[in-house]
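Protein folding task:
====================
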Amino acid sequence: MQARSALFDVYGDHLRSRGSEAPVAAVVRLLDPVGIAAPAVRTAISRMVTQGWLEPVQLAGGRGYRTTDRANRRLDETGDRVYQRHRPAWDGTWHLAFIEPPADRSARTRLRADLTFVGYAELTDNVWVSPFPRAELGSMLERAGATARTARADRFDPEPIGAWDLDQLRTSYEAWLGEADGLVGRHLGAHDDGDEAAFAARFHLVHEWRKFLFADPGLPDPLLPRDWPGHEAADLFADRARALKPGTDRFVARCLAD
């Protein structure tokens, strides 16, 4: 697990509802049970400040960092997808983005990763498709130095679901169903403190589940097979995350209070 990714998980899943800020010492304590060492935490924080995700703030517990408005938008959208808080109704049309990519190769790579993360797939060269418009598109293009035209397509024949590898996604969801409880059990058994164990187990559960956001665009039910395993996998995730939340919340409160 990379420290930067772990920091996004901490701020999104634990600190967003607690003012989106914390002293550095508290963040270090929170990430210790999941194996992220203090030097790696501090290095990742510094990089995230440079990238515009965090900003320094002076707190009662010492120097700390708060998520920026840009980070909050990303964390909120990610949280909605992780916990399926708002499943929009599909109107049967598709959102298309005709991208004029940036000249810089690294910027192009970042833009592709961002587009994939928020639910787009490349239909053909520089033409990206999504079942829903994505609120972050404009800010992602601006950061990358790219431009785009957008359009709505009333119909495709056939529907462009082939832009995503649904066979591989099905395999991944089926594997998740067989492995999630083992993942939770391993981390529950690795810590003597019950609340710390709950935190570590939930942290790894959410971290692994969040990876599906890079592969699953959240296609509307009418486009998915009736036996789509993603629904059962989402129910399992929500049930296990809910069960671990009380102990997790107690551990987070301790780390922030120390």
In short: The CA atoms of residues 8 and 80 lie 15 Å apart. The two ends are 25 Å apart (CA to CA). Residues 3-73 form a domain with the Arc Repressor Mutant, subunit A fold (CATH 1.10.10.10).
